[in-house]
Design goal:
Length: 301
């Protein structure tokens, strides 16, 4: 069954499946939503369904087209993404245009996915616009973005927007249970995922760090500031990911506020937000963390 291994966004599964069943496949789609919620996986599965040569139960997984797709050697399928992680260059779009001009080889259609489409250079975006205005009848383009506002309005107007919703906490838990090595997370870690499987994977890989941060917060009322500073080494060493860890501290404080109705937790959140601004403004990093911990500790001392 199509999309059976993908979690969440059931309405989109039904919409795209219906497009296939009714043969109402449009020439251009724009998949929009936060990072890590499965937009690329949905796009690939949709492409697989489009390219399948079966007349029912697509993708069938047995026809020549499906076998080529599964083997990542399908001549009528192409994915484009930022080559350097930063931009999609005009040369990449020109290559897409060269391929799109060629008629399908194995399937009846050709499918092109542009990951992080908001990272196209101005020249690349303008070049793609020409293709979106007059695509070949057999071509389908799927643009994927987490930053819709950065796309040209003229590009957005020529695509059918599919808006993906963040996954629920229950859906994140379901995903974690499906992994070969089940990832155990606290409820606060689940909340930190903010509905993103990508975030869940990242937090799972750094679970020890998040556990240490939670321990710091839980001991604020029990230990003196020198002990807190010693145990907070994880924050001093985490400069590259400090914003995520500060956000996680906020998640914990908000949950404690909900449970204990102690307004000091709102002051702690305000201190964290001030610290984030200081760090963004290139204030001394270690001194910013020192000040953060001292000021929060003083709220509960």
């Amino acid at each position: 069954m199509a999309f059976e291994n993908l979690i969440g966004n059931e309405k989109i599964k039904n919409l795209l499946s219906n497009n296939i069943e009714t043969n109402n496949i449009l020439h251009s789609y724009l998949f929009v939503g936060i990072d890590g919620i499965g937009k690329r996986l949905f796009a690939k599965e949709f492409a697989h369904m489009i390219l399948c040569n079966s007349k029912q139960d697509r993708p069938c997984a047995t026809c020549k087209s499906c076998l080529e797709f599964q083997g990542e050697s399908h001549p009528d399928f192409l994915q484009i993404e930022p080559e350097d992680g930063k931009t999609i260059k005009i040369e990449q779009i020109r290559y897409l245009q060269e391929k799109i001009a060629e008629k399908p080889v194995t399937a009846e259609k050709k499918v092109y996915i542009i990951q992080d489409s908001d990272k196209m250079t101005r020249e690349a975006a303008n070049s793609l616009l020409k293709t979106l205005e007059e695509p070949p009848t057999y071509a389908i383009l799927i643009l994927i973005t987490a930053n819709e506002s950065k796309l040209l309005a003229t590009i957005k107007s020529r695509c059918t927007k599919i808006a993906f919703q963040a996954l629920s906490e229950d859906e994140i838990k379901t995903y974690l249970k499906t992994q070969s090595e089940e990832i155990q997370m606290t409820n606060n870690m689940i909340r930190q995922c903010q509905g993103s499987i990508g975030r869940a994977i990242k937090i799972g890989e750094e679970q020890e760090t998040y556990t240490q941060v939670e321990s710091i917060v839980n001991n604020l009322k029990k230990e003196d500031i020198t002990q807190i500073w010693k145990k907070a080494e994880v924050l001093y060493q985490a400069k590259e990911k400090i914003m995520d860890l500060l956000d996680y501290m906020n998640v914990i404080f908000f949950e404690k506020l909900r449970e204990e109705k102690d307004m000091r937790y709102t002051k702690a959140v305000a201190i964290i937000e001030e610290t984030k601004k200081r760090i963004t403004a290139n204030a001394n990093y270690d001194m910013s963390i020192d000040n953060l911990l001292l000021r929060i500790w003083e709220q509960f001392a």
